[in-house]
Predict the structure.
Amino acid sequence: MGYDTAMLPTAPVIPTRFSEVLGQPKAKEMLSRAMASAKMSHAYLFRGPAGVGKKTMAHAFAATINCAAPVSHEACGSCPSCQKFRSGNHPDFQMIAPEGASIKIQQIRELKKSLAFPPFEARYRVILLADAHTMRRETANSLLKTLEEPPANTVLILTADEASGVLPTIVSRCQVIPFFALPQQAVTQTLMAEAEITSEAAATLAGIAEGSLGRARLLRDKELLPLRQEIVTTLLDLPPDGPETAETVFALAEEAASLKEELPELLDLLRTWYRDLLLAGPTQPLNQDLAFTWETARTRWPEPELFARLDRIDRAKRELARNCNRALVCEVLFFGLL
């Protein structure tokens, strides 16, 4: 049975096929095997690092098990069910995400009420509980009975970033599907395909994100790399006792402090540059876009001074965590990095 692919949305947002999920061959193999054996679990736990495709895979799996014309356990992408999944409007797919810092017990109670009714139109109703590691014990306990006695034709998918954050009683009632960090080259290529970005910047984002495409995208969208580069190059060129040094440092500190919640992340990025200077040799540097600074910086600062600068960054992060004045913290830090 075929469908008119011209009816597909021109800019798909939500995946319907495993082939649209970057990497994760082990997870794809395990889920395909489950579908082939017709012995799918009623509950899955997708467990692994943040930003490596767990939620993306959940969408693709939900679309595949409800596809009207799958081919080799791959959704067709064009049937009415797939089109609804792709547009994010399928009536039998529901995602529950943390409200604030965690999934609340009221969300689970409302979910259990909705499960009293059969699926609206699909073969399987799919519930995605994103970031299940954020559930507190009472919330997780409220979910247990649903996991023990799930309604018919319902599949629950839990995603979790850390194994330690999920109660053993929850884990024992799910089939665990492991997810792993993505190859940095694959993350680099994806970033370059998605937006206008240099290969050096994409490689830097991929390296700093440690194989997490989601984190690399966040760093790219926050545009922290240009400010990190401005700080590095400016401080590297400034003479410690120059007539304009103080004014320049104050201006940089004001710009950095304006980031507010993202300031600690900027300091983390600065830290990786000093790490690169210390690890000269066979280790692949993270800050590929700052390669032009390495020779000058290594000539200027011996190893003990590089360690001292790392300590100053760590001290600044601790002061920010204590809600010290951001601008003052940045001023002291940047003068210390000269």
Remarks:
- The CA atoms of residues 156 and 300 lie 57 Å apart.
- The radius of gyration is 24 Å.
- Confidence is low (pLDDT under 50) at residues 1-12.
